[in-house]
């Protein structure tokens, strides 16, 4: 198949390289000249495990271009441009509508436009109106990949949602994936259901995180241990253990914007999504309560305390600090200086936090002589603390429940605290 992917980002590039590896001819379009120059020189402009290698082994099937007329032979056009959060919480659709207008002159009869960008219900109807061609089908095909596991998720998806009333379009996309992916994973819905599936899925996962954080608060007051509670709950196959890790709340480029967009779109339909609204607010407030705990700890140790923070990215495995709760926590610690380290996110974090932080080169450098160590991202690298000997009184606030509790509690000179205990 001749396939065009519009938008060469965290979704577009793994999708393009994955489809090229199935043997299709893929043209990737991006309007960011800097990014395009990197791509055309044979390099991936973002970090995703295995992506560069997958590209290199399939580069004869992939081209990169900034010229939309290069899509004119495409039978399938995948839209993968950004849909960031607007100030009012809604999804900003300017990029997706611009892309629809730009592809319109080059669509051949029988072409399929499939939207992978996360878009509110009804957006694909609007894309269809923009394209205004009865010989072109517009399909909703939301993307569920996780940053850090994008290629694994491309080749082993839990499901592929194909939202369309056109059997012809459904069959063509089904045949694209069916030889490579278990056919029962391919789910056919109408377009509006597909659009809602994406938002409902992300809001559900975000709610699960917020739920266990509230249970953690209860555990702290009631003399229970949230990790045991999560394990006990998660053993129930109806519940599952994933996304039940208590901590400082969710962040990143998807959950915050998608929960807000879902609440906003429900409001437009006159529907109150109380659970989602509570999750958004509770998750936001949590980072300030965490900062408050750290401030109290500093007060009790003394204002000369050396404070070391481990973790800046919104989760481990990425350099992404967008809506990272760690960043907001740090901004609300009333102490100067703060020493910080993150294995990947220092550059991005320094653009947001500026020079108020002393950026250290390693875990070791960061925690040297620290009176208080705070863990804000669950990087496996920070497990190194389990084998450190602390020669002076040190308070360790493990706010991702990362370290082995027994090891840490048996250490001399260490006061070890975690979430939900
Ligand atoms: N990142 C994720 O983990 C993830 C997962 C699932 C779904 N999504 C959704 O997928 C969409 C894309 O997300 P992303 O993280 O890949 O975004 P991104 O910002 O990494 O990439 C988007 C790309 O689109 C390009 N672009 C914008 N307008 C264009 C146009 N008119 N023509 C050509 N290129 C254009 C930008 O230059 C950019 O390179 C969003 O709706 C997002 O919510 C993202």
Question: Which short descriptors sum up this protein?
Answer:
binds nicotinamide-adenine-dinucleotide, six-stranded parallel sheet, 421 residues, Rossmann fold, 15 helices, alpha/beta, single chain
Task: Please write out the topology.
Elements (H helix, E strand, L loop, with lengths): L1 E5 L5 H10 L3 E5 L3 H8 L10 H8 L3 E4 L10 E4 L14 H10 L8 E4 L7 H9 L5 E4 L9 H6 L4 E4 L3 H11 L8 E4 L1 H32 L3 H9 L20 H14 L5 H28 L5 E4 L14 H7 L6 E4 L4 H8 L3 E3 L3 H5 L4 E4 L18 E5 L6 H5 L4 E5 L3
Parallel strand pairs: 1-2, 1-4, 2-3, 4-5, 5-6, 7-8, 9-10, 9-12, 10-11, 12-13, 13-14
Q: In this structure, how is the largest beta sheet organized? A: 6 strands, parallel
Number of DSSP E strands: 14
CATH homologous superfamily placement of the largest domain: NAD(P)-binding Rossmann-like Domain
Q: Say which molecules are bound, naming each kind only once.
A: nicotinamide-adenine-dinucleotide
Query: What number of structural domains do the residues give?
Result: 3
CATH topology descriptor of the largest domain: Rossmann fold
Task: Note poorly predicted spans.
Answer: none
The top level CATH class name of the largest domain: Alpha Beta
Distance between the termini: 55 Å
Shape verdict? elongated
Give the amount of beta strand, in percent. Answer: 5-15%
Q: C-alpha Rg, in Å?
A: 23 Å
Helix content: 40-55%
Strand pairing plus helix content: what structural class? Answer: alpha/beta
